[in-house]
């Protein structure tokens, strides 16, 4: 049972703190990133004894995960077909060009609210995370090796074990908050960092609708790190630095009154992406010719050096 699993993890975490005087993930964050406010999407899923779950699910899934890896492989007909199905026959593009980020622009887009409630594990967890340990992992979570959940576990681990793209991408799948913080510091080279997420207010149905851009604000220009929450039995984030980027905050409103402050990442260097990847198929452009942008759902986090750090 998932509730029993979470209880065991909570007990393990508390026992470690008491017996080894380890600092909590919250304190680790404050110690390493003293000027960075912890996003709510992280704070909500730190493992505590009061973590509320009535679910027996063994694998947590996000509503959608575009923006993570479609440039790593050739687009398939099924991917394009699924976009049309998800949009109720009104085609939308999860990727767009930087020139489209302007006040007054209107786009068709589905909900950016994700519902992946996977909790963080303690850093000291001994649960393996390796394709060589699949049987042990499935057994630990009591997952049938022929089930959809088993395939999801395998797919996520496979993604995490893929090599970096032509040495222009630095990536790591982190299985704890502490390892996420360590990777941020190692790649961005400063502890003066902004951590931002997309925010959605007033959403009632989550279907595809038209959104109008009310304000577009550039937040950063240069390297950033994005941590995407993957589909897994606990919180695993695919964190990567993918070359020079621009980061924007886009305030927009849907026809039903939904208000969104959406984080948009525009990749300035796409020369090392797969030429037949989904972004190029949808936008009909070639790698390295123009910046390609995408929004981040609410469970994905972007980290950028603050202006003070840049100066």
Topology at a glance:
Blueprint: H1 2-20, H2 25-32, H3 40-43, H4 77-86, E1 95-97, E2 106-109, H5 134-140, H6 148-161, E3 170-174, H7 177-188, E4 193-197, E5 199-201, E6 209-222, E7 225-229, E8 237-241, E9 245-254, E10 259-267, H8 278-283, E11 292-295, E12 301-305, H9 307-310
Antiparallel strand pairs: 1-11, 2-6, 3-8, 4-12, 5-10, 6-9, 7-8, 7-12, 9-10, 10-11
Helix pairs in contact: 2-7
Explained architecture:
- With 311 residues, the chain is α+β, with helices and mostly antiparallel strands.
- 27% of the residues lie in helices and 23% in strands.
- The chain has 9 helices and 12 strands.
- The protein has helices at residues 2-20, 25-32, 40-43, 77-86, 134-140, 148-161, 177-188, 278-283, 307-310; strands at residues 95-97, 106-109, 170-174, 193-197, 199-201, 209-222, 225-229, 237-241, 245-254, 259-267, 292-295, 301-305.
- The strands form 2 sheets. Strands 1, 2, 5, 6, 9, 10 and 11 form a 7-stranded antiparallel sheet that branches. The protein has a 5-stranded antiparallel sheet with strand order 3-8-7-12-4.
- α2 (25-32) packs parallel to α7 (177-188).
- Residues 11-21 and 49-55 have low confidence and may be disordered.
- Residues 95-306 form the BURP domain.
- Residues 1-21 form the signal peptide.
- This is BURP domain-containing protein.
- Keywords: Signal.
- InterPro entries: BURP, BURP_dom.
